[in-house]
């Protein structure tokens, strides 16, 4: 079994297929799924398959807004930390973190008011990472 990479409770990661070169994420083993903040989202059909498009300001480059899209892999109810349930769109996309790339599932939601635009849940962490909750940003800052 390969050694697991140690992460802090917050890290920078990338979602390259969505055009996101760097975004701050809270690593949360208490959350099952991963969530990405979007400022707006919409749906459309491409080749008979449902897709979601969205806009996000990652905060990495001043006033840069990224517009991305991807095929919808699922849509299901998610319960947030406050106990509120909402139906969310899920996308499957490559994630790059600590030099590792893996396919993960993320849901699109409004995280406005939260300190981190991305929440990295335990299904994305499974079998690859160990968390040290006393440490932060173990894998450096985002690229300039």
TrEMBL record:
Q: Which InterPro entries match?
A: Asp_endopeptidase, Peptidase_aspartic_dom_sf
Q: What protein is this chain from?
A: Ribosomal protein S6 modification protein
Supply the SUPFAM superfamilies for this chain.
Acid proteases (SSF50630)
Residue ranges of every copy of the Retropepsin-like aspartic endopeptidase domain listed in the record: 6-141
The organism's superkingdom is given as Bacteria
